[in-house]
């Protein structure tokens, strides 16, 4: 009760101050000002209260994106799926037959690309800012991690240019949204420069990378969708081919997520609008570990956890996606044939606990 009264007092004080400052504005305008200022503490209180009432296993609070307006939050979710670029059957990776029989088996245990053989094979968490470029960050997050793995060097940490994909250089999309598969095809054909060559601007800029960007561009080999869309197939693809681009839909309460196993208060919509990177799983808690692109101030230092089934439901949209044969100025091994990679693979095959 005290918390509710405190919230009410804060709201009234804030409303009074804003209304005084804009005394000539009508109430609709004042309401818009409040929304644009990110006055979301009342929403947060309601979310926290419902989490407690339903005894859910996640927490909500102020994050790097929670104070954005509704329109700004929606703009961050820029996943578009172009049916004209769906992969053919020849471009799918079939999980072993034994994994297709029972999608609820728990034969693996735990796995996390942030801790395999003592190394963190993921690159740093980034922030897409006020741009619907999640698709670009997810694609490059996968390629950067794959480069670490193929080089057998978790500290190589390639940093590629998301701005190159968002700008007029790449036809896959812009800040209004984009298709991760189309972006992969572009990178496969043309390559993508490093961040220093075309720093992130979070806007629909002209194509103005450094003049010699093609000399230092990074490309990929094949692009695959892992099938079928079962929990065990997702695990198999993750362990054998590296981090994967996956889809989800980002409900309003997800922007307030600060930890735990996320569960949308009103359920999933069934239509994906946001792309992230799948990096791990845990059978004991029955959850996936994802890397987001909303900065380290969201979730668990930029990462999050969602229940089994929450990602698999979007497999019909052409996910998850993996790539191989990352190539650039630095020679890189093929992950599936490199003798170096078998050192990592051996630990996976032994089903070691990799927390």
Written description of the protein model:
It contains ten helices and twelve strands. It has 355 residues and is of the alpha+beta class. It has a single domain (59-349), classed as Cysteine proteinases (Cathepsin B, Chain A, Alpha-Beta Complex).
Structure characteristics:
globular, Cathepsin B, Chain A, 12 strands, alpha+beta, 355 residues, seven-stranded mixed β-sheet
Topology of this protein?
Blueprint lengths: L1 H20 L5 H10 L4 H13 L4 E3 L9 H7 L15 E3 L2 H5 L8 E3 L21 H18 L10 H5 L6 E2 L2 E2 L1 H11 L32 E5 L3 H11 L2 E5 L8 E6 L11 E9 L4 E5 L11 E5 L13 E3 L15 H11 L6
Helix pairs in contact: 6-8
Task: Offer a concise description of the structure.
The protein is an alpha+beta fold. Helix content is 31%, strand content 14%.
